[in-house]
Design brief:
206 residues, Rossmann fold, 6-stranded mixed beta sheet
C-alpha cells in the first residue's frame, strides 16, 4: 500500500484577488507562506519517503516549506500535477465571469476556450498517478503538493468520490478546498481510496 498526503498550495496573490490561476503563475502571498508552514507543522511527525509537486511556483514553494522539517526527502516536479488549464479564462477575476466559468467547471471544461476539457484533465491526472505509482515502492508515504480543482477532479477520477457539492454547500469560495489543506488517500492492490478529505492544516489531527 502507498499512502499519499495531498497538500493544496498556500494562498496566492491571485487567490486574494479572486482570479482563476490554473496554468498562470501566481506567487504565494504572506498568508500562503503561513498556510504552508501550518501544513509543515501538522505533518511534522509524519514520516515521508518522497514528494512530488506541480512545477507551478506556488505548489513547489509549498512543498519545499512542508519538507523543511523532513530531512533528505527526495522531491520531484511532475507536470501532470499542474492545475486545470482554463484557457482564455486564465487570470480573469472570477466574479466578472462567474456564471460562464461555473458552468464550465461543472460541465465539460474549457477545451473550446483554448484550455482542457474535463476528460482531458482527468486523463492527465490518471496518467500522472500511474507514473507515480510505478516509481513508488509498496509501503512508501508520499507528499503531493498541487492545486485545489486538481484535488476535486483527482478524487472523482481516481477514487470515484464526488466532493464538490459537500464542500460548496457551506463554503462561499471559488475553490472548495482550503489553502494548505491536507488530505490522505491510499493506493492498495490497484485501487485508490480516500482516507481523509481535505482539512485546514490548523485543525489537522494526526
Amino acid at each position: 500500500m502507498i499512502t499519499f498526503y495531498y497538500v493544496r498550495h498556500g494562498t496566492t496573490l491571485g487567490n486574494l484577488e479572486s482570479r482563476l490561476v490554473g496554468n498562470t503563475e501566481s506567487p504565494l502571498a504572506p498568508e500562503g507562506i503561513q498556510n504552508a508552514k501550518d501544513a509543515s507543522l501538522a505533518l511534522r511527525n509524519t514520516v515521508l519517503t518522497k514528494a512530488y509537486y506541480s512545477p507551478m511556483s506556488r505548489a513547489k514553494d509549498t512543498a519545499m516549506i512542508v519538507l523543511e522539517g523532513h530531512e533528505q526527502v527526495p522531491a520531484f516536479a511532475a507536470d501532470e500535477l499542474v492545475e486545470w488549464h482554463f484557457g482564455k479564462y486564465e487570470g480573469v477575476v472570477h466574479p466578472t465571469h462567474q456564471e460562464d466559468v461555473d458552468a464550465r467547471i461543472k460541465g465539460n471544461g474549457f477545451a473550446d476556450q483554448g484550455g482542457e476539457s474535463r476528460e482531458e484533465f482527468r486523463e492527465r491526472i490518471r496518467r500522472g498517478f500511474e507514473r507515480i505509482v510505478r516509481e513508488t515502492a509498496d509501503g512508501e508515504r508520499v507528499l503531493i503538493a498541487s492545486h485545489g480543482f486538481y484535488y476535486v477532479e483527482m478524487l472523482e477520477a481516481l477514487c470515484g468520490r464526488k466532493v464538490r457539492d459537500a464542500y460548496m454547500s457551506d463554503k462561499k469560495t471559488i475553490c472548495p478546498v482550503p489553502n494548505g489543506g491536507i488530505s490522505v488517500f491510499v493506493y492498495d492492490h490497484g485501487v485508490f481510496r480516500i482516507e481523509r478529505f481535505a482539512e485546514d492544516p490548523r485543525e489537522w489531527k494526526p
